[in-house]
Amino acid sequence: MDRKGLTRLIEEAFSLYQLGYELVDVEFLREQGRRILRVTIDKPDGVQLSDCEKVNKVLGGYLDEKDPIESSYSLEVSSPGVERPLKKSTDFERFRGREARVHTYTAIKGSKKLEGVIQGLREEELLLQVKGEEVAVPLDKISKAHLVFRFEN
């Protein structure tokens, strides 16, 4: 099953069991010779280890029942961390005012990597304040984006 199919199946489980978490990301990858299905979740007040355990148990049972993956794999459920990935347009609205690093498929203002403060969305563009200048980044040109965490002294 491809990533989109897995994502739909996982969304179905979240809805069916009313888990109350936001599905941030689904990755199916190979690490050190093992196949891993990594599911990243979030909730407004943050994700604790007990949240990951709960979702892992419910989702693991659901996936065992549906059996969408032919080979063996490990299921990992995790929080998005402090440098949370920004996957959906609603993420950019939700984290308005926060600093983000955005990678693009094509150069914008001479670079494929921009770092700045999220100003929100305008039509199909992300607005970023980069070094005092507002930069419009077409959403379809974003290859990946995530929040930036800075340690304070």
- Low-confidence segments, given as residue ranges, are none
Task: List the domain count as a whole number.
Answer: 2
The helix content, as a percent range, equals: 10-25%
Number of strands: 8
Residue-averaged pLDDT: 93
Structural class: alpha+beta
Please indicate the percent range of residues in DSSP E strands (runs of 2 or more).
Answer: 35-45%
**Largest sheet features:** 5 strands, antiparallel
Name of the CATH first level of the largest domain: Alpha Beta
Span between N and C termini? 47 Å
For the CA atoms, what is the radius of gyration? 17 Å
What is the CATH topology classification name of the largest domain? GMP Synthetase, Chain A, domain 3
Level-2 CATH architecture of the largest domain: 2-Layer Sandwich
Strand order of the largest sheet: 7-6-5-4-8
Note the overall shape. elongated
Compressed to H and E, one letter per element, the order equals HEEHEHEEEEE
- The number of helices is 3
In brief:
This protein has 153 residues and is α+β, with helices and mostly antiparallel strands. The chain is 25% helix and 42% strand.
Explained architecture:
The radius of gyration is 17 Å and the shape is elongated. It folds into two domains: 76 residues, RimP-like superfamily, N-terminal (GMP Synthetase, Chain A, domain 3), CATH 3.30.300; 59 residues, SH3 type barrels. It has a five-stranded antiparallel β-sheet with strand order 7-6-5-4-8. Strands 1-2-3 form a three-stranded mixed β-sheet. It is an alpha+beta fold and 153 residues long. α1 packs across α2. 18% of the residues are buried. The protein is built from three helices and eight strands. Helix content is 25%, strand content 42%. β4 and β5 form a beta hairpin.
